[in-house]
Amino acid sequence: MMCPKCGEVNNDDVYMCVRCGHKLQSMQGERSKPRQQNDSNGGGKKKGLVPELTMQGAKLGIYIEAWVYAIALLAAGVFLIVKGLAWPLYILVPLIGLTIALRRI
Questions:
Q1: What per-residue confidence (pLDDT) applies to 2?
Q2: Given this model, what pLDDT does residue 57 score?
Q3: Largest alpha-carbon pair distance within the chain?
Q4: Confidence class for position 27, pLDDT limits 50, 70, 90
Q5: How confident is the model at residue 79 (pLDDT cuts 50, 70, 90)?
Q6: How far apart are CA 67 and CA 62, in angstroms?
Q7: Considering 11, 32, 100, 105, which has the largest number of Cβ atoms within 10 A of its Cβ?
Q8: Is pLDDT above 90 for 75?
Q9: How far is CA 68 from CA 47, 61, 73, 100, in A?
């Protein structure tokens, strides 16, 4: 199943996209139905835990990405100020802000 937000191909049994955490719509009608546990899925492992862990991983990825942007901006700012070049920050700060806004972090 393909995510409509980011285009990532996901397994059919997940509720959220593994890349961006966007809710996948095709599983919406099947949520009220209880899932049948068969013996081929690892002998007693619950399939219901997979979407929750995937969602947490996707959200964790977004937080890590936000911290990477913040640390990169801080490092570039310190480096440029030490070198005495403040003008690239006028370009870098809005560019990173636009990237964060477009990525919806």
A1: 82
A2: 65
A3: 66
A4: very low
A5: very high
A6: 9
A7: 100
A8: yes
A9: 32, 10, 8, 11
Cα–Cα distance, 14 to 84 (Å, whole number)? 51
DSSP letters for 30-94: GSSSPPPP-GGGTSS--TTHHHHHHHHHHHHHHHHHHHHHHHHHHHHHHHHHHHT--HHHHHHHH
pLDDT at 28: 47
Helix, strand, or coil (residue 11): coil
Quote the CA–CA distance of 89 and 45 in Å, as a whole number.
51
Identity at 21, one-letter amino acid code: G
Which amino acid is located at 56 in the chain?
Q
Question: Contact at 8 Å (CB) between 5 and 17?
Answer: yes
Q: Which residue do the tokens 């990169």 mark?
A: 72
